[in-house]
Amino acid sequence: MNIALIAHDRKKDEMVNFIIAYETVFENHLLYATGTTGTRIMESTKLQIHCFMSGPLGGDQQIGAMVATNEMDLIIFLRDPLMAQPHEPDIIALLRLCDVQGIPCATNIATAEILVKALDRGDFAWRELVHKYKPGEM
Hints:
alpha/beta, 14% strand, 7 helices, 5 strands, 5-stranded parallel β-sheet, Methylgl_synth, globular, Methylglyoxal synthase
């Protein structure tokens, strides 16, 4: 599965610790992240991550493009609700795209843990059907 990892500045340590805790689950999937978040995770784990640009520089939009084309299966986006973000419209657009496309998106550590445990159990197998029967593909 394709999984995106995004964390605002004050949530990056929390994201890194979370990924370390579930590294054995994540190692079986294709990982994407915004710039600094992905780099920090790779420095602390053995995971390989495709890093997009930093969120404020367009990374949220790059991930959003994958969501819009149904190429993303799950997003963990640890947002900082107490800090204004200069790219708030991009964040809202990404969350809206997740709702439109039916992509599970955790915005806090509690929801992220539930989704990762479900991922580990195989509860997202239905996403394979979405990819298998994309229009124009067989």
